[in-house]
Amino acid sequence: MLKVLDPPAVRRWSRHCAAALGRARAEIDALNVFPVPDGDTGTNLHLTILSAAEAVDALPGGADADATWQALTRGALLGARGNSGVIVSQAVRGMAEVLGRAPGGGADLRDGLTRAAEMARAAVVRPVEGTVLSVLSAAAQAVRDAPDDLAEVARRAADEARRALRRTTDQLGVLSRNGVVDAGAAGLVIMLESLAEVVTEAYSERHEVPAPAARIAPGQAQNTGGPGYEVMYLLDAGAHEVDRLRGELDALGDSLVIVGGEGLWNVHVHVDDAGAAIEAGLRAGRPHRIKVTYLGGRPHEPGPARGVVAVAAGDGLAALFREAGAVVVRREPGSAPTAAALLRAVREAGTEVAVLPNDAVVHDVAVAAAEIAREEGVTVSVLPTRASVQGLAALAVHDPLRRFDDDIVAMTDAAGHTRHGHVWVADREAMTSAGICRPGDVLGVVDGDVALIGADLTETAIEVVRRLVSGGSEMVTLVAGACAPEPLLPAVRDHLERARPDLEIVVYEGGQGGYPLLIGVE
């Protein structure tokens, strides 16, 4: 029987807990009716704790308590799935805050469970009783007057959690109507029982999961209607930005849980407008690992066949993309279209769709729209086009008769072999990779970076062309903007015809604002 929950014991708990949840996964899934009857709570909890266990296993053998609990916390945060998985990951963080800095005796576990209950409840914007929160609070309350004995604290917590689990049926109407206990709470009980087994060194091969009163097929539970999408993502952001995000997402939907800290957060919410939830994340920081799950039947029957969506920042560019067969989404220079606008375009384009963002600021929004469309049955690939000229090159080789994957490879290859540049006039002082620019300076951009600062628009544009063109170049595309002075395009073209008469030169009126000239070299 252990006296302290030291790092080796934490390792054993994480492995034993993951294995126990894996064995009980299907039984817990069968209980899942709240917050939505999607039948995956057991799976989500298993994957959450498995991620935590794998993170601890990756540590060197002599890792101390702080490193071990940090790894467990980060693994749970990164691997958290679903509403219950996210809440449980925050409970692990609460335990880590105490046990990572303490010897791990009975009093430390008691304080850790109290902190876990507090942090898990605080992470849920609108807590509901009869859930994992209720059971965790009951377990923490039960050990407050326990003696400072590790085994006694662990046993009391597990025993009270089991009793509290039975009470959840009467605490939440949807559980009572379906004759089940809360699925997330059932998973938590197994976690606490696994902890008690590790501490007492008395292991069980199986943990009881109360069976539902009647068999419930996923999606058939008696539950009230709710939002259509579950949206989850990891978010790199500061605490102030996350506080603002909580308010935005609370207004959009329900089942909102945001956990984490120190710049990395896991966001979970149920909403009707998945695009708006992701855009809120984009305003707060950098969302990644975006996952959108539709919580009902298919909401949309996509259009026929193969298609391409292209984002364009000028009327001329929009016309070029349309003529080439793309569904066009317009945007203003320096801004991104909404995820909703991109989603509408993807739906219009077909069942297999390539998306050309054509700007780095559009890429994340395009990925968000693609995630939503995939949940609706559309096959979507977002190509890494960072400039309109790359999008034009990709669209030039698009072949709807090819296999979709082969078509995406060909389009991506064409975009990747297109160097891109542009010129524009600075409107404020700023630090660039070429030095400090001031209002009125002409900036020459090569492959996304400011490569030179000039005084004359035409001379700077010619120098950008010189840097883009190489011995193997075959074609140059020049796209004039709405603000391009009349002599600019002829001067650049004349330079190319004199310096490289072998090149094919294509000129378009793009009509884009902000950038007098876009340049592509293939």
From TrEMBL:
Keywords noted in UniProt: Coiled coil
All residue ranges annotated as the DhaL domain in the record: 8-197
Coiled-coil residue spans: 151-178
GO biological process: glycerol metabolic process
One Pfam family per UniProt: FakA-like_M
A GO term for molecular function: glycerone kinase activity
Source taxon at top rank: Bacteria
UniProt-listed SMART domains: Dak1_2, Dak2
Key word Coiled coil present: yes
UniProt-recorded name of the protein: DAK2 domain-containing protein
Organism: Microbispora hainanensis
